[in-house]
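Data deposition worksheet. Section B asks for the primary sequence of the deposited chain exactly as it was used as input, without tags or linkers unless they were present during the calculation. Section C holds the resulting structure in token form. Section D is free text for depositor observations; keep each observation to a single sentence. Incomplete worksheets are returned to the depositor.
Section A, Depositor: J.P.
Section B:
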Amino acid sequence: MVMKAEDFKRLAGLWTGTLYVQEANPVTIEGRIYDNGTFSISRLGLMAVPVPGYMTIVDGGVRYDSEDSSGTMTFYETPTKWVWKFQGVSKFGNNTVTNELTKPK
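Section C:
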């Protein structure tokens, strides 16, 4: 979808999904989007530490930057849920990072 700043308000909330880092096992994650375009991602588990980041709208697309990686994001909707995808590069080792999270409507 083509993004506008006000879209962050309707996407705000708790998301769940999977983190894929090149050459590593997939990890279950939880994400939270805030209505100002900031977000946090954390692995599920006892010692989970949220990784903060922020999104910027560029020509209707979304670029992101976090402590761990940077790249692009896309959002789309199905009849029952929102889907949030990341494609980026890790700041530690230059590995490809892909996240996919969903949130019910």
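Section D:
The chain has one domain: 7-95.
The mean pLDDT is 92.
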